[in-house]
């Protein structure tokens, strides 16, 4: 399978899950450490518009701001460093993530807005936390300037809010997505 190149100034949905759907985050400390590694390896190479860390998967919306080779290596370093630390902590060996992280080129602004909303409301979508606004390991709180993980992972807040027009519209569209997700869960 040929992987999508990470081109400068383009937006991407980056995501992956644990091998065979296994947990990649077993604790709050695991998630906090992953965020620290995101900052360490991705800072100044990509602009992070959204992220969410779930038990067995993660999502990111990023804009590439460095050249492809540097960014690809930075993502590789992030995932390798995390997998090594996770394996050591839990006395395990072997792959943690599925083969390659997925990278989907975002083609237009509307898709980017929907992607950011999807990522931030992922806890509600999966029924983990119906109030996605209180979920600690997503970019939602950082974007609306509430207490957040911003000191761990800087979010391109101004750019994100501009994509939605203003903070009120950002919050409104997230709430509409959450209502759709809750209805979907009620039907299942």
TrEMBL record:
Gene3D superfamilies membership: Transposase IS200-like
InterPro entries: Transposase_17, Transposase_17_sf
MF terms (GO), sorted A to Z: DNA binding; transposase activity
TM regions (residue ranges): none
A biological process term (GO) from this entry: DNA transposition
The Transposase IS200-like domain, residue ranges: 7-122
SUPFAM superfamilies the record matches: Transposase IS200-like
Protein name: Transposase IS200-like domain-containing protein
């Amino acid at each position: 399978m040929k992987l999508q190149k990470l081109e400068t100034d383009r937006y991407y949905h980056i995501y992956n899950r644990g091998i065979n759907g296994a947990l990649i985050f077993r604790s709050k400390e695991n998630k906090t450490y992953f965020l620290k590694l995101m900052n360490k390896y991705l800072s100044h190479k990509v602009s992070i518009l959204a992220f969410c860390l779930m038990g067995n998967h993660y999502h990111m919306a990023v804009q590439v701001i460095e050249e492809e080779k540097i960014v690809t290596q930075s993502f590789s370093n992030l995932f390798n460093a995390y997998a090594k630390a996770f394996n050591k902590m839990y006395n395990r060996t072997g792959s943690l993530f599925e083969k390659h992280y997925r990278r989907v080129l975002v083609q237009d602004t509307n898709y980017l807005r929907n992607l950011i909303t999807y990522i931030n409301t992922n806890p509600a979508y999966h029924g983990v936390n119906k109030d996605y606004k209180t979920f600690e390991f997503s970019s939602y709180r950082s974007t609306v300037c509430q207490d957040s993980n911003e000191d761990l992972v800087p979010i391109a807040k101004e750019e994100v809010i501009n994509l939605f027009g203003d903070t009120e519209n950002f919050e409104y569209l997230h709430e509409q997505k959450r209502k759709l997700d809750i209805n979907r869960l009620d039907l299942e």
